[in-house]
Amino acid sequence: MDDIRKLIENWARAVHEGDLAQVTAHHTDDVVMFDVPPPYEGVRGLDAYRATWPGFFEWQRSGAVFDIESLDVVAGADVAFAFALARCADAGDTSPVRLRLTFGLTKTEGEWRIAHEHHSFPSEPTDETV
């Protein structure tokens, strides 16, 4: 499980640094990601996954933060999942809201690869949901 934890921590560091090569280094070619912004049906495949990052990196360069605050990993012999909470906010934002991250991983040729990512923020309650 330590190798999965290190893989995800390195992924998060690469996200924070805007290093696309390292963000994608340990993903499967058929990765599926459900993200906060559209497309809401998700993106499928490594090329589509890569294409989602430039706008986020631009936002990061404005001084935004992206830091994992908690990470839990559950692993079997060749399948694993991990879930995390991350601070993902504009510089100076003190909101307690955290980005929720879920990863599905597979072991291929002895190496863990991320096959699925899900990113979400909790919805804000409205008068209809209270």
TrEMBL record:
It comes from the Bacteria. InterPro entries: NTF2-like_dom_sf, SnoaL-like. Pfam families: SnoaL_3. Residues 4-122 form the SnoaL-like domain. This is DUF4440 domain-containing protein. It comes from Herbidospora galbida.
